[in-house]
């Protein structure tokens, strides 16, 4: 009973205070509702009743922000396409520089530099291989997963590229400097050789000046023109003719010619102690053709061979002899192909190498011919000897001995250099087979002609 009364009293009390609050809220212009249901106090005891205690909901707490799933990190965070390409070009430039250093270390060979440059080149190749595996496949925008690679930024790659270019330029400069040093050394050596040649030329010029200088009571020409001078020039000419005849015989032999048959066609009546002596026939053919016209002032080149003024011809011949001896005959022909010397060479070539005799392999008188240079050298020596001969007073005379004439030790010399009269095992006066080199008369002195003796005599 008391419990019911207490509950009713509490309800009325709540309603009373609710009415007062409504009046206060009307004065303030706002109304707020109060819960109609109030749970029993802790002291209240209600029996045989189901008590429902209503508790206000707790203030909602702020929900934590959703944590995004961890992003999948690229094993190479800075490895995008631009950086990869920049690093690739920088590595290529490094390899190029290292390879250039390898080449430079080979000339001259520097073992330490070669090993260092080789190791650097191999290292850059390995890095290029790693970059190749890190490069994205076609159609893919991401870089494939691979082991982490140390990539540089774009600016760092450009710096490395420029540094490698500087190393490359430095290697090129070192190589060029080495070439310059080598050429400087060669130039210095050539200058030393040139200085030596100039000294030799000066000494020779001084000797020539002393030889040409007039002595008291004598003229300039008489000081130079002697039998020994002419004989010396003649011997030089004979040596050159020997070389040319040997070259001619070798060339004919290589082209299938029978030299013995050739010798028989030149001197049909000649006999030989040995079959190999037929080479003297070829030498005789060359010498006699070259000396043909030697007794003429124009050497058979000029159409008008009138008697020259001896005084003028002597001085002019000596001057031309000195000038011709100081120049290269090949350059002389190139400078003036229509000069008297060039005409002399061409005419004598056609006489020695007779056209139309099956000797077409020898060629005509032109630089492409295999005998051009040796023939010009031989013709130059004969031309100089002719100029010297006409500088004497009287002019040097030429002679030769015919087939079958008896050998004379005064005018002849056996070209085999054997004792005359021992060829047949008994003392005899041998006969001349043919003249190989003609003889000369220098004033009252005879320069012997060289002959091949007939062994059958």
From TrEMBL:
Annotated ranges, domain GIL1/IRKI C-terminal: 398-452
Source species: Rhynchospora pubera
InterPro entries in the cross-refs: DUF641_pln, GIL1-like, GIL1_IRKI_C
DUF641 domain boundaries: 80-205
Swiss-Prot/TrEMBL GO biological process terms: negative gravitropism; response to red or far red light
Designated name of the protein: Cell cycle progression protein 1
């Amino acid at each position: 009973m008391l419990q019911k009364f207490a509950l009713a009293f509490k309800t009325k009390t709540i309603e009373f205070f609710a009415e007062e609050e409504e009046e206060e809220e009307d004065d303030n212009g706002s109304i707020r509702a109060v819960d109609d249901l109030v749970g029993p106090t802790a002291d209240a005891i209600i029996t045989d009743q189901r008590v429902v205690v209503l508790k206000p909901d707790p203030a909602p707490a702020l929900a934590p922000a959703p944590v995004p799933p961890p992003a999948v990190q690229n094993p190479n965070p800075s490895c995008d396409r631009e950086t990869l390409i920049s690093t690739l070009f920088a590595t290529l430039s490094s390899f190029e520089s290292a390879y250039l250093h390898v080449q430079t270390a080979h000339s001259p060979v520097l073992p330490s530099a070669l090993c260092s440059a080789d190791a650097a080149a191999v290292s850059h190749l390995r890095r290029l291989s790693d970059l190749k595996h890190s490069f994205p496949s076609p159609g893919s925008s991401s870089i494939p997963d691979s082991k982490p690679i140390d990539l540089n930024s774009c600016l760092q790659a450009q710096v490395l590229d420029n540094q490698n270019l500087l190393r490359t330029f430095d290697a090129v400069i070192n190589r060029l400097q080495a070439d310059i040093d080598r050429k400087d050394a060669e130039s210095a050596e050539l200058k030393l050789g040139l200085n030596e040649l100039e000294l030799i030329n000066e000494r020779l010029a001084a000797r020539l000046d002393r030889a040409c200088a007039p002595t008291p009571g004598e003229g300039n020409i008489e000081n130079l023109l002697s039998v020994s001078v002419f004989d010396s020039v003649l011997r030089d000419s004979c040596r050159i003719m020997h070389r040319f005849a040997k070259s001619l015989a070798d060339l004919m032999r290589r082209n299938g010619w029978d030299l013995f048959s050739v010798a028989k066609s030149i001197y049909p009546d000649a006999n030989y102690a040995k079959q190999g002596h037929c080479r003297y026939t070829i030498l005789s053919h060359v010498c006699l053709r070259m000396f043909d016209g030697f007794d003429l002032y124009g050497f058979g080149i000029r159409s008008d061979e009138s008697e020259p003024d001896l005084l003028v011809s002597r001085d002019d011949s000596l001057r031309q002899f000195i000038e011709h001896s100081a120049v290269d005959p090949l350059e002389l022909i190139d400078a003036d192909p229509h000069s008297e010397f060039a005409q002399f060479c061409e005419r004598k070539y056609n006489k020695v190498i007779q056209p139309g005799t099956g000797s077409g392999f020898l060629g005509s008188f032109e630089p492409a011919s295999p005998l051009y240079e040796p023939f010009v050298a031989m013709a130059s020596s004969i031309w100089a000897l002719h100029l010297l001969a006409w500088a004497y007073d009287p002019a040097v005379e030429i002679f030769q001995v015919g087939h079958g004439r008896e050998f004379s030790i005064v005018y002849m010399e056996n070209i085999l250099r054997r004792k005359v009269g021992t060829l047949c095992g008994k003392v005899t006066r041998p006969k001349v087979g043919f003249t190989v080199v003609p003889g000369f008369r220098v004033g009252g002195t005879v320069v012997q002609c060289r002959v091949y003796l007939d062994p059958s005599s």
